[in-house]
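Q: What does the assembly look like in three dimensions?
Context provided by user:
Components: two
Sequences:
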Amino acid sequence: MIGRKVALIGASMTRFGNLPEMDLLKLMVEPSLAAMDLSKIDLKGVGAIFVSNMLGDALSKQTSLGTALSDALGVYGIPAERIENGPAGASALRYAYLSVSSGESNIALVTGVEKMRVASTDVVTDYISSMSHPYAEYPSGATMPSLAGMFARLYMNKYGVKPEHMGMVAVKNHDNALKNPYAHLKKKITLDYLFGKDAATNNPFVADPIRLYDVAPISDGGAALVVADLETAKQYTDKPVIIEGYGEATDRLAVHEREDPTELRAVRVASQRAMEMAGVTPQDIDVAELHDAFTILEIAESEDVGFFKKGEGHLALERGDTSIGGKIPINTSGGHKARGHPVGASGIAQIVEIYWQLRGEAFGRQVEGAKLGLTVNLGGFGSNAVSFVFRRA
Amino acid sequence: MIGRKVALIGASMTRFGNLPEMDLLKLMVEPSLAAMDLSKIDLKGVGAIFVSNMLGDALSKQTSLGTALSDALGVYGIPAERIENGPAGASALRYAYLSVSSGESNIALVTGVEKMRVASTDVVTDYISSMSHPYAEYPSGATMPSLAGMFARLYMNKYGVKPEHMGMVAVKNHDNALKNPYAHLKKKITLDYLFGKDAATNNPFVADPIRLYDVAPISDGGAALVVADLETAKQYTDKPVIIEGYGEATDRLAVHEREDPTELRAVRVASQRAMEMAGVTPQDIDVAELHDAFTILEIAESEDVGFFKKGEGHLALERGDTSIGGKIPINTSGGHKARGHPVGASGIAQIVEIYWQLRGEAFGRQVEGAKLGLTVNLGGFGSNAVSFVFRRA
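A: Here is the predicted structure of the complete assembly.
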């Protein structure tokens, strides 16, 4: 690719959770101002705005969020748009990358936002399911949890994954979230809590074998990144986080039409592309945020990005390889599972966490000496994936 | 800016109108396949997909349209997203430009789509109004027609524009649409029809002074462009249409907060930027498509892009300067007013028209010898504008 090196110079997020006092605009403005303030840039320096959001029109009856954020910040005369890729909001950073890399802008703002707790769980689940196949899945009543149930069942049959392995993802990510002040779910859980004698009440089935604690919560939240070309970046910080590579890939929309429905091909292709562009291998990565909207997805992705052989992710998890202090810590933020999953903001929040980790600012959950970080953000049930590789300068 | 020259090598659109037989997916697939077929590219050659759409989730309960189109075309492993900028869907071409210019892809597909006639006029009008200011306009019941009414009244008071001038835009654009097989409204109208003794029934008030024929219809439709770097483009056609410049700019979201509410500052800034990048002046442009969601907007934009002095657009219209055969023909397609206005597709359809004009393929409405074309696509009530300058190779 032709263009300039691009880096992150600021990052921030709101607490994720049930935030009745925050509407869409406030959820965008608060982290945007904080990220700009932390990066020390002048408001007038922002050359382009990219907003990632999935359901603003359907749930909050608000469109043109890019323009609305530009207006609320008082930055006029610049490009500003909304990008929607299901929950794969990290797509917005791809555009900021292209804008800054090409010289269209020198500094860009990327803000992810979702206001979900304005509607009931069934309404939100229905709208989220609107990213499934419009003929082959959605009209048959396929929801994301029901697809996850079938996906998990296949995984269990094929690779010997047990419900307790999915539970281990939840326990690990809840533990990590306890150390993250921005996380939605701050609750210590144990395998005994999830599968012991009170399992039926503590952890009821959502879509067998998927149980309540296998599913990310419905959250409100916003997250923001300040992006700059490397030369500009160095004027503002001696700790820029460099975007070394990215990749995005689509797969078949309907899960049952995939050659091997247990393989997340989009994750494999997007991550390979990102690592190839960065000139690194999966074994070089020090810390990763993967898209654990369902616990089984973290296990599957840890294989499809190449950290572990296919079918062995659950064994690595068992060994503690993916815990903080392990070989390749995954979802130190708590992940979508426990940090929360405001769909348009989650992909940006993953990158905020990696930014903190690579700058040594992930207090209490820091991966010591982390130099290279990777994020994987999914759209649909794996029909689209966006991966990024970041390096500490 | 750094990067390669970028050109259009294919363009197509569905007929715009009330298309009950076409859902969102069909409205995307039909023009996409046609544009790819006309450009003679191989399906496998598509390196990225950009879908512009405003209301898919709210009106059709469908999200992730980029992924859905990638899947329907059978092109996997590529980036594919949806861009929303109110009705400023031409934003999607900006991203395709950046993708192709940077070398991220060599060939990209840009598809605009909107399925509006699934809901009643009041529901659609409400959702369209969701791009107004979320505190200062929308909750007060401001709709796009009501804002247009106030805008037109100011224009009439300040510049001596008369209702008949707005009617002249409608008459001209309806005339042009009669020569466009893809247009929604195929109806010859006259000033007597609009303002004669039957005006109250033929052309009732919507928001005084705005009447029925001052407002674009609510349409279904899809439109698509195939974009390539110039070197690749030349392998497929000896008539590429080169993207010489583009600009996008935001303005204050709330119309009444603008210093001069009759000035479309976003249009001025975006168009100046596009022409500066292209190295041309307004007087060099041979044909233009402007965003006439309301007839008064065509008059205002014809001034703000620099074709005419501020306040003199209606005089130029009177003289026939903007008719086919005039000095600078505007909206030869029929414009949003008569070609139709499926909001996410309209901005792409404008570019399809310019593509045809610059290749000499606008049969029956051809601007003879057209070499340079300009498009202006609005978001909100002028709070965002996207301009492009195209040149015949």
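Follow-up: The longest strand of chain B covers residues 241-250.
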